[in-house]
Amino acid sequence: MPPEAGIKASIGEGLPDCARRIDQSLGKLPPHVIQGRQKQDNGRIDMRIARDGTWFYKGTPINRKELVCLFASVLKREACGGYLLETPVEKGWITVEDAPFVAVEMVWRDCDCGDGGPIRQCLSFRTNCDEVIPCNADHPIRIQLDPRTREPRPYITVRPGLEARIARPVFYEMVALAVTEALEGRHVMGVWSEGVFFPIDEEPVLDVAAE
Predict the structure, then answer these.
(1) Over 70: is that where the pLDDT of 160 sits?
(2) E strands present in the chain
(3) Which fold has domain 101-201?
(4) Are 189 and 199 in contact (CB under 8 A)?
(5) I need a labelling partner for 31 at 20 to 30 A (CA). Which of 43, 60, 117, 136 fits?
(6) How far is Cα 13 from Cα 21, in angstroms, rounded to an integer?
(7) Banded model confidence at residue 146, pLDDT cuts 50, 70, 90
(8) How much of the chain exceeds pLDDT 90, in percent?
(9) What are the tens digits of pLDDT across the range 170-201?
(10) Is 164 exposed, middle or buried (0-12, 13-18, 19+ CB in 10 A)?
(11) Residue 149's pLDDT band (boundaries 50, 70, 90)?
């Protein structure tokens, strides 16, 4: 079967076959095959990313990390909010319960941002696919607060349209670095990274829990 045979069809043959087809579509299709070709929409694939970041295929967890990372490398999000696996010639839609990635580790350090200014605090996060994401204006932290309990649900942008949910222990570490700043007449608690302030809450967070 040629590499452009379809994500959905190759998944029907098993996950290793699907991974091989994706790998071939990314790196081995000649340009003349891709150019002018209408991308094939294979519809809904029976693949799901659970809230804890676990990938499932037909209800069974995908335990091979290299497979998860390969699928994640072609994961995109459309303007409608839907998630899909997309190669240069095809795409297939999957289900994502929350965010597709989980930030499982945070590193902070003092760094010189190269703009001639003072030494600043810089944060970076490692995802469950071992991708290191610097926290900055291009990769902002977003805190979603429960309107009733004000329980925070923190995220960081991995790439356009895709976020990682910051795991609870990592969020605790981040909150330990928080400071209070005046922002538009309000006293807001948040963290600094690469010269950008990322708000957490308007009030000091005494008892936080990120799902």
Answers:
(1) yes
(2) 40-49, 55-57, 60-61, 75-77, 83-86, 90-96, 101-111, 120-127, 132-134, 141-145, 152-159, 162-166, 179-183, 186-193, 196-201
(3) duf1285 protein fold (2.30.270)
(4) yes
(5) 43
(6) 11
(7) confident
(8) 51
(9) 999 999 999 999 887 788 999 999 999 999 98
(10) buried
(11) confident
Sheet holding 101-111, edge to edge: 132-134, 120-127, 101-111, 162-166, 152-159, 141-145
Amino acid at 114: G
Distance (Å, whole) CA 74 – CA 19: 11
Residues ≥6 apart with Cβ < 8 Å to 179 = 189, 190, 191, 192
Parse the chain into domains and list their residue ranges: 3-96, 101-201
What is the CA 92 to chain-centroid distance, rounded?
A: 18
Asked: is 3-96 a CATH 3.40.50.2000 domain? The reply is no
CA dist 136 → 75, 154, 173 (Å): 22, 15, 18
Radius of gyration of the chain (CA): 20
Say if residues 125 and 106 touch (Cβ distance below 8 Å). Answer: yes
Region label for 45, one of left (φ > 0), alpha (ψ between -120 and 50) or beta (otherwise) = beta
Q: Helices 15-27 and 65-73 meet at what angle, rounded to 10?
A: 40
Q: pLDDT tens-digit profile of 31-77?
A: 444 444 566 777 888 899 999 999 999 899 999 898 899 899 999 99
**Residue 66, both tokens:** 């290299």
Phi–psi pair at 51, nearest 5 degrees: -60, -30
